[in-house]
Amino acid sequence: MSFTIVKEATPRLNRSELAVPGSSPKFFEKAAKGPSDVIFLDLEDAVAPDDKEQARKNVIQALNDIDWRGNGKTMSVRINGLDTHYMYRDVVDVVEQAGHNLDLIMIPKIGTAGDVYALDMLVTQIEQAKGIKHRIGFELIIETALGMANINEIAKASPRLESLHFGVADYSASTRARTTNIGGANAEYGVLTEADASGKRDYHWGDQWHYALSRMVVAARANGLRPIDGPFGDISDPDGYRAQALRSAALGCEGKWAIHPSQVDIANEVMSPSEKDVTKARRILEAMEQAQKEGRGAVTLDGKLIDIASIRQAQGIVAKADQIAGR
Ligand code: GLV
Ligand code: MG
């Protein structure tokens, strides 16, 4: 281990994160009663400029009137970007009037550590002025070339930070990546194999988002934050959604956005450790405990040596399973 100890962010279940437009209060009650772990009420890109003010009012009222937390929800509000004049009122009005019922603020299009610093100052003042006892956390969307270039400084910019999210739609726009299907695979991103003896060549699709997602996972984990994968646009393609969620989980992501309620169950399932994994993890921990009791250093299970890294992994899996069971 390094002499530097990574401090983990406030632990929260974040397998699914449902996006609900602040301009559509008709969806609020259903979202509160649904199965998502986290909900973000959106004031940004799902809300048209003419609806911004009303959406803000809806969100404040909903945070205060609906029993989100009683339904096990972590509540977030996605504010507008720091480059818009909506942002300061989003923060001031929402935190002043509903900060007691707000867990997180989602900050889009973060570009520099200074962006985080500015918001930290504003939120700190409002919390103090309003006597808000808990610390409102920040979730940051990495979705611009600038944000990705500065990700390591951004990821350590404030103790409020809890998670980094890959905003693949805006990231594509910002990097001018060629993509048609938000967060999906791209037929143009692949390799043609060399010809075999019969002259046949195969085409293998690659994952266009691998680098960005991996880079975000590393920056997040190096700073104790949760890496969360962003949207998958084709809501009529649950198989495509599941495939993307699985590869995000394989890379280390803890959760994925749902831009439609139908995606929530898939995210929860994919981002939960399987029963098989949990059973194996518990057996590893039991074997370790037994070996310690018997004064044995080396631990074997099913004929395989278990090292300290596998014990740490097992502890992580069991902790997550307990967290899910306690929900
Ligand atoms: C999310 O905000 C995205 O741009 O993908
Ligand atoms: Mg975006």
TrEMBL record:
Binding site for Mg(2+): 143, 170
Superkingdom of the organism of origin: Bacteria
Residue numbers binding substrate: 78, 143
An example Gene Ontology molecular-function term: lyase activity
InterPro entries: Aldolase/citrate-lyase_domain, Citrate_lyase_beta/mcl1/mcl2, Pyrv/PenolPyrv_kinase-like_dom, Pyrv_kinase-like_dom_sf
Cofactor(s) needed by this chain: Mg(2+)
Family statement: Belongs to the HpcH/HpaI aldolase family.
Pfam families: HpcH_HpaI
Keyword Nucleotidyltransferase listed: no
UniProt name for this protein: CoA ester lyase
Keyword Metal-binding: yes
GO BP term (any one): oxaloacetate metabolic process
Every HpcH/HpaI aldolase/citrate lyase domain range: 16-261
Keywords on record: Lyase, Magnesium, Metal-binding
UniProt organism field: Tistrella mobilis
